[in-house]
Design brief:
Elements: H1 2-19, H2 28-37, E1 52-55, E2 58-62, E3 78-82, E4 85-88, H3 94-101
Antiparallel strand pairs: 1-4, 2-3
Length: 120
């Protein structure tokens, strides 16, 4: 009797797990289709008012010595010059990226308040 009392709930859980529909695997094509079908579409009235800060240009050393773990020998230090530029003080959201660039790259394509990822 005790065995039956244990086996019945176990069988019920097994049957439930077996009958649960599995989601299709996420492929890049499926993610792109999902992004196109979501509610956030291009808004012609969107105004990208984004606070920026000036980053001063200068000379800096890029690369590192090959004594550091995880770096290749071709990443030796060298001096480089960068002009001044402006950078946003906040991360760009996926919604903002979609309005300017017209696509929604990266993961979490349904989270429009999340930071845009896989962009450069």
């Amino acid at each position: 009797m005790r065995t039956i009392a244990i086996l019945l709930p176990a069988c019920a859980l097994f049957i439930r797990c077996v009958n649960t529909p599995q989601a299709e695997p996420l492929t890049p094509e499926r993610v792109a289709d999902m992004a196109r079908s979501l509610a956030a579409k291009y808004d012609p009235d969107f105004h990208f008012d984004y606070p920026m800060v000036q980053v001063k240009g200068g000379i800096f050393t890029m690369g590192c010595t090959n004594q550091k773990k995880g770096y290749d020998t071709d990443e030796c230090p060298y001096r480089d010059t960068v002009n001044g530029f402006q950078m946003g003080i906040y991360e760009v959201t996926k919604y903002q990226w979609m309005q300017v660039m017209g696509n929604n790259p990266g993961a979490f394509s349904d989270c429009f308040d999340c930071p845009a990822n896989y962009i450069s």
